[in-house]
# Entry
Amino acid sequence: MKGGPRGPPYFIGHSEGYALSLVSETRETERVAAIIEPSATAMGLELVRISLTGGPHPVLQIMVDRIDGATLTVDHCAELSRTVSALLDVADPIAEPYALEVSSPGLDRPLTRPRDFDRFAGNVAKIEMREPRPDGRRRFRGRLLGLSGADVRLALKDDEVALPVADIARAKLVLTDELLTAASSGQQA
# Structure
């Protein structure tokens, strides 16, 4: 396998009528997504994030979920890994050697699609904005209240904020006892 850009690590697809810019895309991850997304979809999987990290041992990380919301298994990841490996060997979209990693997003998953903010409403999340807001603040932690138009609503300790989706650099769930309890009981997080 080949790989290794030094740019921003996240990929996000285009859906739900948003010109998504939650996180940055690199040319390499865009090419990888275009190559693998049809096969992943045919396997009942959707891309959550594609990350290509640099350094002495670059890693191409592909996070996926089941389209039907069911539990993603190691077998799903292994099957996609074999498929992706073959597709990328033929297309060769990445110039340098890299390791391929296919995984689930995990409990403290990144929130990369606007629908994630509704899907995981009620959970605690960390959100980092691209630029400081007028009050100088860039980082927020609070309970997700979902989307309101093009804004993510977040309940803070003493306040509620509306953060424009287009201005979010990264967002992820925070691992809490509630999240662990929901996961262990098989409920939607």
